[in-house]
Amino acid sequence: MSLNRIAVKVHPNAGKDVLVQLGPGRFEAWIKAKPIEGRANAAVSALVMRTLNIAPGHLKLVKGGVGRHKVFQVLT
Q1: Under a CB-based contact definition with an 8 Å cutoff, are residues 50 and 68 in contact?
Q2: What is the pTM of this model?
Q3: Per-residue pLDDT tens for 9-23?
Q4: Which of 35, 43, 51, 66 could bond 12 through an S-S bridge, CB–CB 3.0 to 4.6 Å?
């Protein structure tokens, strides 16, 4: 996986929002949001941007819109 891609395994409906790095470009996220109407996707995107200091609008979900395994593209 290239450095401008981030793979995240998501656990929705968790007790708190946490992002843990597993390796280069690989993360696991626990988020409070439920996977309803894109809320979990929005929450994990916000968590990744906040934790990795990525500017708003510079992170795009490119794979995994309806699954737990997501791939984000960091836009420059």
Answers
A1: no
A2: 0.91
A3: 999 999 999 999 999
A4: 35
